[in-house]
Design the sequence.
């Protein structure tokens, strides 16, 4: 039996197709170890060799990587949720109810999506704290720290825009409170300092722009949906690309 | 360019490196120490893979027990009391008790983000890069920890100690009984003019001066006592650092003024109040 398995596996791994996909053997040589890293589009985010000290979990706490993992999980579960959810105030709430009760594994996806969202806010903060405490923002990494802060802002905005989508009481009122603050923005909000003096009205200030109306309604739901599912994730991906690129180019900070 | 190059050793298929050629010239790696590196595959991937497995398993496990909440359908007819933002915004929501919305909801968040982005340019101490150290960067670490601690405390208050009408409820209190409306708050300028028997204008002048004095003293005293710190940073960096620092420390001060002396506003202008 095992002989047969061996023969099958030998045959499979010797086919041109297999070789086209997996370009190098698994023989444990230094050359293969390098090839594994740099011939794979995902793995080659990493350098072929890493400093021993930087790999230690007690140095990075694994928090940047975990933030990325959570972002990927959020993307996958988010896409699944999008198949069942329509951003229409007349049915959004029912769609979520269906996801929780009728759709196969719907509640799992929604629960994982929500837990991962909370988790990501947390891990990004912790990642920032570790970067601060290891002084990893000092030259030459100043720029990457700024990119990081933008990622933090984007993460918070993603959570916030997602909060409205279930269209339940929690959602409506949390966003109502949040956007009330937008109306208080200095200069650009009707209730903010110098807002009225600059000609801001309830129907032309930043809050109006955010909601597409004077209160949280259909336009707001659609705006938040598009921001949450398309615009903000795209921004995150772009900044993540810059972030990782910078980590490679500036070198990882670990102890020398 | 070398005039002639020749193969010294044949390439070994088992090695990633080989002596390719001998050339004359200077190389960037000449004076570098050898680094203590190891192969990313499998050493780093191993960690990453385990972490990914653990996190995914934890999420799936938790998702069995922690149901994502879904309340009644959105409706304008009933307003929940209290209305709480998600936990990571509760620090800001808590500040709404003590500051006007344009400060708590707009100015402070923007300042926090700008302040964070400025950190690499304000902290020019070259020490402590690539390792955990407190002794080599006392001010920086203390500062960051203070801000974080403030943030966490505000969030904890928001999550566990705020109930009906955003009043303070201990965990053992009945959260369904409204609390009596708290005694009224006063404004600092009015308090001065009333208690000292001076004109409104004088009361206002005193409180404005106090605010100015807070920043002036906060800027001058440290520069005086830590001359080295001031010299190293230079004027612009020093002032930016200290103003951000004083604003951060000002937040708990304002909270204390409100809790201890029932002061609502310290500064009053026709356009905004602080
Ligand atoms: C979506 C959020 C983020 C993701 C997915 C992310 C991911 C990562 C990853 C995977 C690394 C490699 C090292 C490690 O894991 O610690 C890293 C490094 C770094 N991150 Fe982030 N990050 C995020 C947000 C931030 C934030 C908020 C900051 C700071 C404000 C930041 C600043 C940095 C810096 C300066 C480095 C280089 C560290 C070094 O060389 O030691 N990142 N990031």
Sequence:
């Amino acid at each position: 039996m095992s002989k047969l398995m061996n023969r099958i596996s030998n045959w499979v791994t010797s086919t041109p197709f297999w070789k086209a996909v997996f370009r190098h053997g698994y023989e444990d040589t230094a050359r293969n170890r390098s090839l594994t890293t740099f011939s794979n589009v995902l793995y080659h985010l990493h350098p072929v060799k890493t400093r021993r000290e930087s790999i230690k979990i007690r140095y990075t706490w694994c928090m940047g990587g975990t933030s990325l993992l959570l972002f990927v999980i959020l993307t996958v579960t988010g896409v699944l949720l999008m198949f069942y959810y329509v951003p229409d105030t007349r049915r959004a709430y029912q769609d979520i109810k269906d996801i929780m009760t009728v759709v196969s594994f719907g509640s799992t996806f929604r629960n994982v999506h929500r837990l991962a969202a909370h988790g990501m806010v947390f891990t990004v903060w912790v990642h920032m704290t570790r970067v601060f405490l290891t002084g990893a923002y000092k030259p030459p990494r100043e720029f990457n720290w700024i990119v990081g802060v933008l990622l933090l802002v984007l993460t918070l905005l993603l959570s916030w825009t997602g909060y409205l989508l279930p269209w339940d009481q929690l959602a409506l009122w949390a966003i109502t409170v949040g956007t009330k603050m937008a109306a208080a923005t200095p200069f650009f909000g009707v209730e903010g300092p110098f807002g009225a003096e600059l000609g801001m009205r309830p129907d032309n200030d930043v809050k109006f722009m955010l909601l597409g109306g004077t209160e949280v309604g259909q336009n707001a739901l659609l705006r938040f949906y598009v921001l949450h599912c398309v615009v903000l994730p795209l921004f995150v991906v772009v900044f993540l690309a810059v972030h990782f690129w910078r980590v490679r180019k500036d070198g990882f900070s670990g102890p020398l | 360019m070398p005039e002639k190059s020749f193969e010294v050793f044949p390439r070994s298929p088992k090695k990633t490196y080989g002596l390719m050629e001998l050339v004359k010239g200077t190389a960037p790696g000449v004076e570098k120490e050898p680094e203590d590196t190891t192969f990313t595959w499998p050493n780093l991937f191993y960690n990453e893979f385990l972490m990914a497995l653990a996190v995914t398993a934890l999420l799936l496990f938790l998702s069995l027990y922690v149901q994502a909440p879904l309340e009644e359908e959105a409706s304008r007819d009933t307003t929940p009391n209290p209305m709480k933002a998600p936990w990571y915004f509760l620090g800001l929501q808590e500040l709404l008790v003590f500051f006007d919305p344009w400060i708590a909801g707009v100015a402070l968040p923007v300042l926090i983000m700008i302040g964070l982005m400025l950190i690499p340019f304000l902290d020019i101490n070259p020490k402590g890069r690539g390792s955990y150290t407190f002794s080599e960067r006392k001010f920086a670490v203390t500062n960051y920890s203070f801000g974080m601690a403030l943030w966490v405390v505000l969030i904890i208050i928001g999550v566990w100690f705020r109930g009906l009408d955003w009043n303070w409820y201990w965990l053992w209190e009945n959260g369904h009984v409204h609390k009596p409306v708290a005694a009224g708050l006063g404004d600092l300028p009015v308090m001065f003019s009333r208690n000292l028997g001076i004109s409104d204008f004088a009361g206002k002048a005193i409180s404005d001066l106090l605010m100015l004095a807070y920043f002036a003293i906060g800027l001058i005293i440290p520069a005086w006592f830590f001359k080295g710190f001031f010299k190293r940073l230079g004027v612009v960096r020093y002032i930016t650092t200290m103003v951000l620092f004083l604003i951060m420390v000002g937040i708990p001060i304002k909270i204390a003024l409100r809790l201890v002396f029932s002061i609502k506003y310290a500064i009053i202008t026709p356009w905004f109040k602080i």
